[in-house]
Structure formats: C-alpha cells, structure tokens
Amino acid sequence: MGIPNAVDPANQGDVLRGFSVEVTTKDTSLLAGLSDAIPKGTIVSVPFLSTESDADRITAARMTRRAGYEPMPHIAARRLSSEAELSSMLSDLVNEAQVSRLLILAGDADPPKGPFKDTATILRSGILEHYGIRHVSIAGHPEGHPIQSGAMLNAALLEKRQILKEAGIEWSIFTQFAFTSEKVLSWTAELRRSGITAPIHIGIPGPASVKTLLKFAAVCGVSASTAVLKKYGLSITQLLSSAGPDVLVGEYAAALGHSAYGDVRLHFYPFGGIRKTINWLEDYRSRD
After folding, report:
1. pLDDT-derived band at 108, boundaries 50, 70, 90
2. Comparing C-alpha atoms, which of 110, 48, 120, 137 is closest to residue 85?
3. N or C: less crowded end of the chain, CB within 10 Å?
C-alpha cells in the first residue's frame, strides 16, 4: 500500500490524537508543568533502566499519576531476580501510583537473573491478575529483531495474545522507533491481516541531534543507513545538527486514516529531552 504524498490538514491534527510519550524517571518531575502540552490522562511510559532502582521506578510512577497522567511502567522480565521481587514491585506500583497498565518486555540480561526468561513467563504466572493489572502492552519490532526471526516474533506475539485473552487482560503493542514509515506500515497491515486488532502505538524518535539519534539507533538495533537518515532529514556529516520527525509524522498522518491499519497511535521517544519533544508537538499542532 502506497503512502499518499499530500497531508490533509485534518489528518495532521488527527495523527496526534491519543499519542503517548516515554519519560525517564529523572524527568517525571517535569510532568506537572507540562499539562498545557500533554492532555491529562495521556499514557506516560516509564522505562526500566538498569541504572535505576525499583524505588526510583515507583517514585516516577507516583509522580506521573499525581501530575494527572496514566503511568505505564516497564517490566524487564530477564532482569528480575525472583517472583518476590516482581510481587513487591507490583504491590508498590498499585498501592502508591494506582498502576493498572504495564509494558512488559523480555529485557537484555543473558542469562536471566531469575525465573522469568521472557514476557510470556510473566504473563503465565498469574501475578498480574493477582495485583489487578488490567492492561498489558508488549513490544513490537517492525524492522525485525537482531536475534529472533520474523517467524519467531510472530509466533511469540500470537502466544502472548492467547495468554492475555485467557487471562481477561486487555493488551496493546508499542513498537520500537524507526526513521521511515514504509516497513512500519507494511508490518502493521500484515498484523491486521493476521487477525490482530489490538491498538498499536508506533514509535517516533523525538527531536534530537544527529549524534544522539545515531547513538540510540545503534543501541536499539534500528536501521540508520545514510539513505534512511537522508529521508528522515538527517546528514551523518552534521552530527551536532538537530532534526525533528516532521516528515515521518506527516507520512503517518497521510496514511493512517486507511481502514487497513486499524487503531494506530503515535508514541514519542524524547531522545533530545522531554522539553524538545513537547515544543515540537506544540509547534506541529499550531500549523495550518
């Protein structure tokens, strides 16, 4: 399916409806001052960083809730040392921040630190139901995975869908960020053809310097060839210059109205800092 060249002004505004944003624990203190730019109730994703403690994550979720947003803490299965650690974390997240939504991913610890080797192991444990978790988001990889094949990723996705369905837990997919839309849109359409109707939140790299974007692309295994970056509006010869996702978001605005894509929203990764991303959002909204 091709991407329309022109963006209808109505679609430009629609593409930001229901967007979500990732905010690191150290930046959650800024959320209270951003209510004019981020609608109340917006999903705020809080990553599971190895340099932070469970107490940091719980504090971040609590501050997010107090600012009027819906906290979605990440849980990295392979980094958990025991079921007791997961239970303690969930108890605190629920009691202190009224968390009912999580993003669960496998994580990169190899070997796993405890009994959870992947996302499905947590989903099968029954711990989420015990603590009243009502919605689970899982990771999507439109550009593939460095270790798992496409067939393995699809099988794992279908397995998680079945476990969550049997548990009566709602679910959605949050994708890795990408610098171009073609593979993401193709992947999304293929999921819809396979019968997956869950909401999909497409990862958007927020405005940042070329150097910063390249660093995150390398860490996350995201395609960042010279041709890809040029399409996004970046030049690897200008590492300190900054760029925003204007062209990329415009492509999604033009395409996502098509019924083949279903319920799709944008999820912003503020690699250049939350304030830069918010400023970009406000500027994009203000355009005719």
Report:
1. confident
2. 48
3. C
The CA distance from 285 to 28, in Å, is: 23
Contact 127, 163 (CB under 8 A): no
Q: Is the peptide bond before 111 cis (omega within 30 degrees of 0)?
A: yes
Is residue 16 within 8 A of residue 285, CB to CB? The reply is: yes
- By CB atoms closer than 10 A (0-12, 13-18, 19+), residue 51 is exposed
Separation in Å, CA 179 to CA 133, 143, 220: 32, 10, 12
Mean pLDDT across the stretch 160-178? 95
Which of 86, 76, 24, 19 minimizes the C-alpha distance to 253? 19
Distances (CA, A) of 286 to 5, 15, 282: 21, 14, 6
Rounded to whole angstroms, how far apart are CA atoms 113 and 219?
A: 21
pLDDT of residue 34: 82
pTM for the full model? 0.88
Q: Residue 172 burial (CB < 10 Å; 0-12/13-18/19+)?
A: buried
